[in-house]
UniProtKB/TrEMBL annotation, chain A:
Domain Aminotransferase class I/classII large: 48-428
Catalytic activity, EC: 4.4.1.14
Record protein name field: 1-aminocyclopropane-1-carboxylate synthase
Family: Belongs to the class-I pyridoxal-phosphate-dependent aminotransferase family.
GO BP term, pick one: ethylene biosynthetic process
Keyword Transmembrane: no
From TrEMBL, chain B:
Protein name according to UniProt: 1-aminocyclopropane-1-carboxylate synthase
Enzyme class: lyase
Cofactors named for this entry: pyridoxal 5'-phosphate
GO molecular function per UniProt: 1-aminocyclopropane-1-carboxylate synthase activity; pyridoxal phosphate binding; transaminase activity
Length: 485, 487
């Protein structure tokens, strides 16, 4: 037709920017998995996916509940009479029972120590949509949120891409187990001030992704004091709340608010979802819960862009209003996560691989610093490629989480069955043993030099900034393979 | 805590503080009236009848029947629960392949099989609401503008502008030529933008039209394509009412036009917005679709779809349903039939009392002409009449000014969101109102009728209505948010 294929000028700046975060070398891992996905029987030498934080451990419980509760569906013989009313309902307040159910569930996930007001529950397109929505409500283009690092890579897309908002990292260090310190907060805040960047809030993920740790009461109170003093918002992503599988108990920001603490509640907001706690990422159940009436009001109007399907609202409402079920689900899920975590960390410990001590999440924060040629991002990525191509595990390098210390890797342990976990551990053992004649923990030099002599990919990387990939991206398979447009 | 309202405002973004959401308008009177007094045939026979909601409730019997016969379409039935885990865990923004295939298949059938759609160009979004915002983010920068022929769906003001910062510039259409979109009007709007230094990035059309209920003819479509091609701007075609065409002329989709031999057009400029909310009557399921002929747009839109994917539970159900060709074929046929019947009943009932509507062959509403009933040809008079209709006739209809119609006196009235009996009640009320209880034949030219109508107008003025600010009849708030948002 004679039209040039270059249509860059036809698109918006947002469309042609890299704000979606997917143009990064980290796709090597996804590509490798896609090309050669592990299957216990059909492809036992394939790449095992350990970069996806999913929670499929309790689907048996859910399926059992579904069989026993046909009225939860609008498609069963028992439930189809409600089909029309549900299919037609498009009120952005959501089904009242849905809001009640979610509020109840959030309370139970916090051991009943706090209650949530159904009228503050606002829907969104998954936590992805929730984070974007809250950014649109609280910040103007050019404004910034502080975010402790390491952090979930997709925050870069969710909070920044279409909003024009910036993220300013608050670096945390292994020297104190990555705790968020007042000093680090103040430094980050001042740095922003000096650059004339207006800080509108602080966003924390608690329990943490990728660390798998929870914030202690003292830290939480420090954060609240900090934001209150600066009069900036506190956004708490509590998406992993029910994945806490061992002591210490989870302390939600909601509990801090109920304590004797001076705080403008208009500054406090919670982001939630059922993607991790219940293992239902496909259902896109995102929640914004704000203590600020204006934000609830505005957020509700914005929720029009990403409401939860009423078919799903209806199902979730039934399920989560069943208190016996939710009680036993939360408990059993925690048990199974604890078991899985134990098996994995012990397996790693056998070959002297440490993880950050954690009590939550669907992953471990694995310490491979000693295996790096040098303490650089390049060395970390080189090791990472080795792990993908030779150990055949897709894990996530710390740099993709903006970790300031090279050598950490996030490894997911819940998104596979036990046999696959065994295979993964076997491969790790084999890999480590292969490269050493003796395996004493202190024989660092020999072990390290053996690893060095292996085939590191020596491809240099043009890594100016640690551009993210999104391990949580809804693209378990490389988009480069699928987008055949 | 001692914080003032202005402190509050400072805490929030500019977007949060502006009224780009479009809900601060007096049009909520209608919603409020309905909410506080909703009609019910038995429990509240004197309540307000909702005729401001463009919903398609006519074919749920067919759907429910299909559901009963196809338990595997659900992941919650005994037959389907085996798939629950795989579906619940699937979060790939490409969507279930079956879903994309099914939607592409359905879109083709709705167009009588005259075109086919490529499943790989199907991108999901949070309803058509999300689709419009998404395409706006892809094609325009803040401050850029889209041209949009008036009258148009009020929700566009929010969907295309609110969080994107994009502007909408009206292309005026008039009743003198049945609201056709003329080249002159397009050029005038385009030049006006140029003079104001506003960069026009595209033209947005709704075909079939909301609120007119008409379809664009081949000539107009071709002239639109020439126009945007010449200016190298985008053409966004909202075809959300495609399957609601119930009589001649047949629907012509933009997808057909660009295939034509003599049609020179850069396909990179052509995009379709679609949804199952109107054609199938599933607004609650939030099935929005962006279909673009521009590969880059598909790629980027797909990444953006993360903010509003369709629940896989729903994708799975829709996939099964729309891959059933027999069902789809008969549904489309039967739905059109029932819409036609309903449309006939309603327009005939109106004509009996001398009320005319724009001749239409599609949509879930009629564009009712009450210009002769206005005290004067002004927006204020239209609002006054509207309040009378709500208060005295007890019907919630949508005033033309909320659709940015430049000629006062037109009203959009929905006819597919109620059962036959309620429709009858609505017509009876209109009759009663017009005749003031007297059973007199009212020939169209009877001035006395006009005087009678003028008498029973509520004289309640609300001078707060200066600008034809929109309400969103299609807003996902069938009940007034002012009643519900008790935060």
């Amino acid at each position: 037709m004679g039209f040039t294929s270059s249509n860059q000028h036809l698109l918006s700046k947002i469309a042609t920017s890299l704000g979606h975060g997917e143009d990064s070398p980290y796709f090597d891992g996804w590509k490798a998995y896609d090309k050669d996905p592990f299957n216990l029987t059909q492809n036992p030498n394939g790449v095992i996916q350990m970069g996806l934080a999913e929670n499929p451990l309790c689907f048996d419980l859910i399926q059992e509940w579904i069989k026993k509760n046909p009225k939860a569906s609008i498609c069963t013989a028992e439930g189809v009479d409600e089909f029309k009313d549900i299919a037609i309902f498009q009120d952005y307040h959501g089904l009242p029972e849905f809001r009640n159910a979610v509020a109840k569930f959030m309370g139970r996930a916090r051991g009943g120590r706090v209650t949530f007001d159904p009228d503050r529950i606002v829907m969104s397109g998954g936590a992805t949509g929730a984070n974007e929505l809250i950014a649109f409500c609280l910040a103007d283009p050019g404004d910034a949120f502080l975010v402790p690092s390491p952090y979930y890579p997709a925050f870069d897309r969710d909070l920044r891409w279409r909003t024009g908002v910036q993220l300013v990292p608050v670096p945390c260090h292994s020297s104190n187990d990555f705790k968020i310190t007042k000093a680090a907060l103040e430094t980050a805040y001042e740095k922003a001030q000096e650059s004339n960047i207006k800080v509108k809030g602080l966003i924390i993920t608690n329990p943490s992704n990728p660390l798998g740790t929870i914030l202690d009461r003292e830290t939480l109170r420090t954060l609240v004091s900090f934001i209150n003093e600066k009069n900036i918002h506190l956004i708490c992503d509590e998406i992993y709340a029910a994945t806490v599988f061992t002591e210490p108990n989870f302390v939600s920001i909601a509990e801090i608010l109920s304590e004797d603490i001076a705080c403008n509640r208009d500054l406090i907001h919670i982001v939630y979802s059922l993607s991790k706690d219940m293992g239902l990422p496909g259902f896109r159940v995102g929640i914004v819960y704000s203590y600020n009436d204006e934000v609830v009001n505005c957020g509700r109007k914005m929720s029009s862009y990403g409401l939860v399907s009423t078919q799903t609202q209806h199902l979730i409402a039934s399920m989560l209003l069943d208190e016996e079920f939710t009680e036993s689900f939360i408990t059993e899920s925690a048990k199974r996560l604890a078991t899985r975590h134990g098996v994995f960390t012990r397996g790693l410990a056998k070959v002297n691989i440490d993880c950050l001590n954690s009590n939550a999440g669907l992953f471990c924060w694995m310490d491979l610093r000693r295996l790096l040629k040098e303490s650089t991002v390049e060395a970390e990525l080189a090791l990472w490629r080795l792990i993908i191509h030779e150990v055949k595990l897709n894990v996530s390098p710390g740099s993709s989480f903006h970790c300031s210390e090279p050598g950490w890797f996030r490894v997911c342990f819940a998104n596979m069955d036990e046999e696959t976990m065994e295979v993964a551990l076997q491969r790790i053992h084999t890999f480590v043993h292969q490269k050493e004649t003796v395996v004493p923990a202190k024989n660092k030099k020999l072990w390290r030099s053996n690893l060095r002599s292996l085939s590191f990919s020596s491809r240099r990387l043009g890594l100016d900034e640690v551009v993210l990939m999104s391990p949580h991206s809804p693209i378990p398979h490389s988009p480069l393979l699928r987008a055949k447009t | 805590m001692g914080f003032s309202l202005s402190d509050q405002h400072q805490l929030l973004s500019k977007i949060a503080n502006n009224d780009g959401h479009g809900e601060n308008s007096s049009y909520f009177d209608g919603w409020k009236a309905y909410d506080s007094n909703p009609f019910h045939p038995i429990q509240n026979p004197n309540g307000v009848i909702q005729m401001g909601l463009a919903e398609n409730q006519l074919c749920f019997d067919l759907i429910q029947e299909w559901i009963k016969r196809n338990p595997k379409a659900s992941i919650c039935t005994a037959e389907g629960v085996g798939e629950f885990k795989d579906i619940a865990i699937f979060q790939d923004y490409h969507g279930l392949p079956d879903f994309r295939n099914a939607v592409a298949n359905f879109m083709g059938r709705v167009r009588g099989g005259r075109v086919t759609f490529d499943p790989d160009r199907i991108v999901m979004s949070g309803g058509a609401t999300g689709a419009h915002e998404l395409i706006s983010f892809c094609l325009a920068d803040p401050g850029d503008a889209f041209l949009v022929p008036t009258p148009y769906y009020p929700g566009f003001d929010r969907d295309l502008r609110w969080r994107t910062g994009v502007q909408l510039l009206p292309v005026i259409c008039e009743s003198s030529n049945d609201f056709k979109i003329t080249k002159a009007a397009l050029e005038a709007a385009y030049e006006k933008a140029q003079e104001a230094n506003i960069k026009v990035k595209g033209l947005l059309i709704t075909n079939p039209s909301n609120p007119l209920g008409t379809t664009l003819d081949r000539e107009t479509l071709k002239s639109l394509v020439s126009f945007i091609n010449e200016k190298s701007i985008h053409l966004i075609c909202d075809e959300i009412y495609a399957a609601t065409v119930f009589s001649q002329p047949k629907f012509i989709s933009i997808s057909e036009i660009i295939l034509e031999e003599d049609m020179e057009c850069n396909p990179n400029l052509i995009h379709i917005v679609y949804s199952l909310s109107k054609d199938m009557g599933f607004p609650g399921f939030r099935v929005g679709i962006v279909y673009s002929y521009n590969d880059e747009v598909v790629k980027i839109a797909r990444k953006m779809s993360s903010f509003g994917l369709v629940s896989t539970q729903t994708q799975h159900l829709i996939a099964s349903m729309l891959l059933d060709d027999d069902f789809v074929e008969s549904f489309i046929g039967e739905s059109a039939k029932r819409l036609e019947t309903r449309h006939k009943v309603f327009t005939w009932g109106l004509s009996q009392v001398g009320i005319g509507c724009l001749k239409s062959n599609a949509g879930l509403f009629v564009w009712m002409d009450l210009r002769r009933l206005l005290k004067e040809s002004t927006v204020e008079a239209e609002m006054e009449l509207w309040r009378a209709i709500i208060k005295d006739v007890k019907l919630n209809v949508s005033p033309g000014s909320s659709f940015h119609c430049l000629e006062p006196g037109w009203f959009r009235v929905c006819f597919a969101n109620m059962d036959d009996e309620t429709m009858e009640v609505a017509l009876r009320r209109i009759r009663a109102f017009v005749f003031q209880g007297k059973e007199v034949e009212a020939p169209v030219k009877n001035k006395r009728w006009r005087n009678n109508l003028r008498l029973s107008f509520s004289l309640k003025f609300d001078e707060g209505v200066m600008t034809p600010r929109m309400m969103s009849p299609h807003s996902p708030i069938p009940h007034s948010p002012l009643v519900r948002a008790r935060t």
